[in-house]
Automatic annotation (TrEMBL):
InterPro entries: CheB-like, CheB_C, CheY-like_superfamily, Sig_transdc_resp-reg_Me-estase, Sig_transdc_resp-reg_receiver. Residues 152-344 form the CheB-type methylesterase domain. This is Protein-glutamate methylesterase/protein-glutamine glutaminase. One of its GO terms (cellular component) is cytoplasm. Its EC number is 3.1.1.61, 3.5.1.44. The modification 4-aspartylphosphate is found at D56. NCBIfam families: PRK00742.1, PRK12555.1. The active site is at S164, H190, D286. One of its GO terms (molecular function) is phosphorelay response regulator activity. Contains a C-terminal catalytic domain, and an N-terminal region which modulates catalytic activity. Its main location: cytoplasm. Belongs to the CheB family. It catalyses: L-glutaminyl-[protein] + H2O = L-glutamyl-[protein] + NH4(+); [protein]-L-glutamate 5-O-methyl ester + H2O = L-glutamyl-[protein] + methanol + H(+). It comes from Hyphomicrobium album.
Amino acid sequence: MSPIRVLVVDDSATMRGLISLALRRDPEIEVVATASNPLTARDSIKTHNPDVITLDVEMPGMNGLEFLEKIVRLRPTPVIMVSNLTGEGTETAIEAMQIGAVDCIAKPGPGDSQPFAELPRMVKAAAGARVRTRPASNGETKNRRRPFVAAYEPDGRLLVIGSSTGGVEALSELISQLPENCPPTAIVQHMPPDFTTSLAARLDRLNAPKVIEAYDGAPLEAGYVYIAPGGTKHLEVQDNNGLRCRLRAGSPVSGHSPSVDVLFTSAAQVAKSNAIGVILTGMGRDGAQGLLAMRQASARTIGQDEATSLIYGMPRAAFEVGAVERQLPLDRIANAVLVMTNLRGRQGRDKCHSQTS
C-alpha cells in the first residue's frame, strides 16, 4: 500500500519539525510538505494532494478555523487540529471539530518526553474518514436549541453514549436534537485532558439540555448531560441513593481511559433494562463488549450506521458482536431515543393496549 501523504501546517518551525519527526517514524506515513501559513498550505494542497492535513489552530493572517472552513467547503480532506492546552486553544479546537476537523491533538508541554506520540495513530484513522463537503459555517447559529417538549416526559431511563474520532461533530448534532427535559445522559468521548472541559462548556452554551463535565457523585438527572473528563479516570454509573456518576482511577480498558466499555458495562450492571446505549463514530472496538452486556441485560441499544459515521469502526465492532439492536443514521438517533424514553408515549400505548384487550 502507498504511504499516507501528510501536509503539516504550523507557523512554528519547531512544531513543524516535531510533528514531522513523529510522523516520519512510522513507515506507513510520508510527510509530503510543510507550510508556515495558509497561503503556502493552499499551494501545497494543490501540488501534493495530501491524504491528511495537520493544522495549527492559531496562525497569523488567516487562523486555522477560517482555513479549515475553506478546506471543508472547497476540497474536503481529513484535518487534525494541533492546539495549545489553553482555554482559548481548546475551545477553538472544539469549534474546529464541529466545523469538520476529524480530530485534535495537544501541543507538547514542558518536559514531554514523547511529543505527538499519538499522532501517527490519529493520522491513520483520519486517512480512512469519510469527509463530506459542507456549506460555509454560520458559527453558533447552526446549532438548534430544542426547547422543553411538553409532549415528552422522561420515563427515568438512563442514556449512555460512546464516541471517538468524529464524535464531537456527531455529539453536537445529537445533543442539538434533545429537548431541555431530556433523559439523564452520560457520555464518554475519547479526548485529551482539558479538551472535555471546553467541549462540555461549548455544548452547554449551544444546546437546550444542561451539559457539564461529570464529577464524582454527580446525580444523574433528567435535563442533564454528563461528559466524562479526559485523563486517567473511568466514568461509571453507580446506584447510591439513586443513579450517580462515579469517577474511578484505573488502567486503560480497550486502549482508553475513560473507556466506553467501562461506562456501558456499569450501565448494564446497575441500570439493566432501564438504560439505552448508543455507540457513535470512532476507530477501534471500545464499547462493543459493553454494549453487548447492555443488550444482554435487556437494555435498548443503537449504533450509528456506516453511511453517516466519519469512521465506522466502533459501531461496526458493536454490530458484528450482536450488540446493536437498531442501526440508524445520525439524524434519527435522538428521536429514536426520545420515543423509547417518553413516559407519555408509553402510557398512551399502554392505554390503547388495555382498551383493545
